[in-house]
Design a protein that fits this description.
single chain; 496 residues; alpha/beta; FAD/NAD(P)-binding domain; Flavocytochrome C3, Chain A, domain 1; 2 domains; eight-stranded mixed beta sheet; six-stranded mixed beta sheet; globular; Tricarballylate dehydrogenase
């Protein structure tokens, strides 16, 4: 006798979508979460809530909006973001690999999944503050990323929890899954443990693992990604320590995807070791530092190490977060002048943002701790300034082609001289959000055994699905992937 039809392990976006899908198909559903209620929601709660999906124009977006009567909409140009464009963006991070089956499914199901969420009253709003520039009286969206949940990741999790409970789904907190119950080769429940060490067996017809990757485990980061990654700041929850992977591997699950890959982002060097949910939702994101495209980044050896203007930051921040953690000392400085101060995102003006400021470049350089060769840094900046092409106008709404000439490492777009004081520099490191290596899952979300068959009764979604991302990803794809594969796993589990 089963206590539930489906148990979902985890309470983030993917887990809640799995639970919602299973409830939609008539299953009795229990979502269990290791964290206490105030820290539940997995990594999803720490995100900006943006979701990337294919759409053909404004008419596709209006049904998804929290407020379709927003007065700005008539003066907004969303453009289109086709399936072909989404596929091309993913291919840009595949290091020559073709689209994986998981990526193809992500693209194909991205808009239907958004519409499905909206049908459960999980709705979105345009990202005017971070994804638009004003031009000729219009709000121009760029980079193919247009919508986010109201109140960001916290709002997304709260909306999905509300939708799940409205259908009769149950959620238990302080309820960690420590093992899977298996009888006659079939997963039929979970052994749980609360913070007081009390254990309970909860039985089900199917179990969905949706409890994240291994980014919060220093040992597993060093094992799979590299020694440098022991120094990474964990952008999100401290609870994603690879427990789902370990339970699945114990049953012979097949590893899948790029285990040395992860989603990273430039973060304030002096942020806490983990994300801080004690901050209000509108401040939590402010540890990120992703306006590097408006200035330059230099390492401890006084050298630039990436093309800061290679592409819109949606397409580079994951790669550049990784590049920073792999620099000497695991840090870098982002340097700006006052010309672009009004374009810096709010995270740079946040009360707890760490930076140094000076009226002159020489005075600023003297304040850059960790950079020993100050004269070399001055030469690096002077060389960059001399290479800037002043003939091309600066336009942050497009890849403006305003680059440098003659540098071994160019800046391809948005290159402006750093010459107007006062000057600021922000110390950054690499922050890890989630890991790419996971499990192989079937076309209905079932976990695949090393021998090629599904493990009966076991499903997976979210970060536990391998093969979705490789050498980075276009921003906003992570939450969409969680929703897409969560929905699929929930339907698959309910069919049991």
């Amino acid at each position: 006798m089963s206590d539930y039809d489906v148990i979902v392990v985890g309470s983030g976006n993917a887990a809640l979508c799995a639970g919602l899908a299973a409830k939609e198909r008539g299953a009795t559903v229990l979502v269990i979460e290791k964290a206490p209620e105030d820290m539940a929601g997995g990594n999803s709660k720490y995100t900006a809530g943006a979701m990337r999906f294919a759409y053909d124009g404004k008419q596709d977006l209006l049904p998804l909006l929290q407020n379709p009567d927003d007065h700005r909409l008539p003066d907004t140009e969303f453009g289109a973001y086709t399936s072909e464009h989404f596929s091309k963006d993913l291919l840009g991070f595949n290091d020559g690999r073709p689209l994986s089956p998981e990526q193809q499914y992500l693209v194909a199901q991205s808009y239907p999944t958004m519409a499905w969420l909206a049908s459960h009253d999980v709705r979105f709003e345009p990202i005017y503050s971070r994804q638009t520039f004003q031009k000729d009286g219009k709000h121009i969206f760029w980079g193919g990323l247009t919508l986010a949940a109201r109140h960001e990741g916290v709002g997304l999790v709260e909306s999905e929890m509300k939708a799940l409970r409205a259908l009769g789904g149950e959620i238990r907190f302080d309820c960690a899954a420590i093992d899977l119950i298996v009888e006659e080769g079939r997963v039929c429940g979970v052994v749980t443990e609360n913070d007081a060490g009390q254990r309970e067996d909860i039985r089900a017809r199917a179990v969905v693992l949706a409890c994240g990757g291994f980014e919060a485990s220093k040992a597993l980061r060093e094992k799979y990604i590299g020694e440098d990654w022991g120094k990474a700041k964990v952008r999100g929850t401290p609870f994603n320590t690879g427990a789902g992977l370990e339970m699945a591997f114990k049953l012979g699950a097949r590893a899948h995807g790029l285990y040395e890959g992860c989603h990273a982002t430039p973060m304030d060097l002096h942020m806490p070791e983990y994300g801080n949910l004690d901050l209000p939702h509108d401040q939590r994101k402010n540890y990120r530092k992703i306006c590097y495209f408006l200035g330059i980044m230099v390492n401890a050896e006084a050298e630039r190490f990436v093309d800061e203007g290679k592409d819109f930051r949606n397409y580079t921040y994951a790669q550049f977060g990784r590049a920073i953690i792999e620099q000497p000392g695991h840090f870098a400085w982002q340097i700006f002048d006052s010309k672009i101060n009004h374009l810096l995102y709010e995270e740079y003006h946040f009360a707890d943002a760490h930076y140094v400021e000076a009226a002159t470049l020489d005075a600023l350089i003297e304040k850059l701790d960790g950079v020993e060769d100050k004269a070399k840094l001055r030469r690096t900046i002077d060389g960059y300034n001399a290479a800037v092409d002043d003939a091309v106008p600066f336009d942050p709404t497009v890849r403006d082609g305003k680059g440098t000439k003659g540098l071994t490492l160019p800046k391809s777009n948005w290159a402006q001289k750093i010459d107007k004081g006062p000057f600021r520099a922000y110390p950054v490191t690499g922050g890890i959000t989630f890991t790419y290596g996971g499990l192989q899952v079937s076309d209905r979300g079932g976990v695949v055994h090393e021998e090629g068959h599904e493990i009966p009764g076991l499903f997976a979604c979210g970060e536990l699905v391998g093969g979705v991302f490789f050498n980075g990803y276009p921003g906003g794809s992570g939450l969409t992937s969680g929703a897409v594969f969560g929905r699929r796993a929930g339907y698959g589990a309910a069919a049991q």
